[in-house]
Amino acid sequence: MTGPDDGRRGGLSRRRLLGALGVGTAGVLAGGAAGGALGRATADDAAGAPAPSPTDAVPFHGAHQAGIVTPAQDRLHFVALDVTTDSRDELVQLLRDWTAAARRMTAGQDAGEVGAVAGERYAPPDDTGEAIGLPPSGLTITVGFGPTLFTTADGVDRFGLAARRPAPLVELPAFPGDQLDPAISGGDLCLQACANDPQVAVHAVRNLVRIGAGVVSVRWSQLGFGRTSSTSTGQDTPRNLFGFKDGTANLKAENGSALDRFVWVGDDVEGTAAEWLRGGSYLVTRRIRMLVEPWDSSSLDEQQRTIGRTKGSGAPLGQRAEFDPVDFTTQVDGEFAVPETSHVFLAHPTNSGTAILRRGYSFVDGSDGLGRLDAGLFFIAFQRDPATGFVQVQRNLRLDAMNEYVRHTSSAVFACPPGVRDADDWWGRALFG
Ligand code: HEM
């Protein structure tokens, strides 16, 4: 229902709010276009394939790396690493060895050809063994290259890669309210292992780290226990630790035209130096602590107005069902149903002017010594350019009512190369070749 209201509530008109956010007419038009792309993609959804069995293998070879638009698995082990060698040859050999091990593990095999128990009695096994007998469990392993792989923070071109750094691959800017811990931020390389069995994901990261001994060292890592997004129309929408459905309005795997527009690095990359990244994507991670104790003592109304959706069905406020379109003009009792400071209002393409593929996981890392859970969302987003993806949305969230309940404690950005094509290909071949 739309009332005679002129668009004002609480003294702030929508036009003025958008102006205050730096989203002018052009931005809104861009947002409209973004929404249009998402809308068109809904038509693509009709061809959506059913979700595979949770124990199946996900193909390792392809034009794009698995683990990006792959229907989000239930568990995550993410690790960021620093390269400790100065030898380019050692780094290249590691990427070749990692590719071979990832190819095997994603097929449900041991990390090495000999395996955990069939090898030489007096030598360490080439697999650690904890996944013996477990199915592939949808394991995907996705690799990414951080800005510091190309040029160190003090400007050193360690591996002769500086000239091949794509222009968008720069450290993320600071955002108001950031409480980042450098010890769990950044990294030269990352490995994202997702699976439907936590032991399979942990086994994958453990073995890749083992193979990398002497060449890389772990900088930080994060376990995630429940996907917070659906990335396929075949999946149910999960709930995050605020108890809300998360991923309803996400980009989806079946959404080809929108993925090309917002997720994959296309043919228009600037200059030939970064051609190696075509078909790849940029990965942004943010460890976001959720202050669950104050959230749990806030009213249902406050929670719903903070998100902009109902807690039960996930419907946009003022609508009836989860997948009803968000309509910012709908009014209830003379007030806009979706508050202008709600998360959905500010994150929606109409107002942010862009879209990202969210693929995050919940975490609980124990408690903080003050009787509070150290819990939250390990936010993962894929986009074709961080500046017009995560950074643009996050800037638009600066008036987000949710900010009262969240703290960003870690941050990283990586360029994920395209997929490994066949048995002779390896992660980063186009970059190092
Ligand atoms: C702990 C932090 C966060 C929580 C609990 C959270 C939760 C949610 C929820 C419940 C929704 C509505 C359901 C949906 O459409 O998926 C949503 C939507 C969304 N969120 Fe977040 N979110 C968080 C952080 C972020 C961040 C950091 C970004 C990006 C900078 C972001 C971007 C989005 C976008 C783009 C949407 C879809 C909006 C739309 O098109 O309607 N979220 N989020």
Automatic annotation (TrEMBL):
It catalyses: heme b + 2 H(+) = protoporphyrin IX + Fe(2+). Binds 1 heme b (iron(II)-protoporphyrin IX) group non-covalently per subunit. It comes from the Bacteria. Its main location: other. PROSITE patterns: DYP_PEROXIDASE (PS51404), TAT (PS51318). Involved in the recovery of exogenous heme iron. Extracts iron from heme while preserving the protoporphyrin ring intact. This is Deferrochelatase. It comes from Geodermatophilus telluris. The lineage of its organism: Bacteria, Bacillati, Actinomycetota, Actinomycetes, Geodermatophilales.
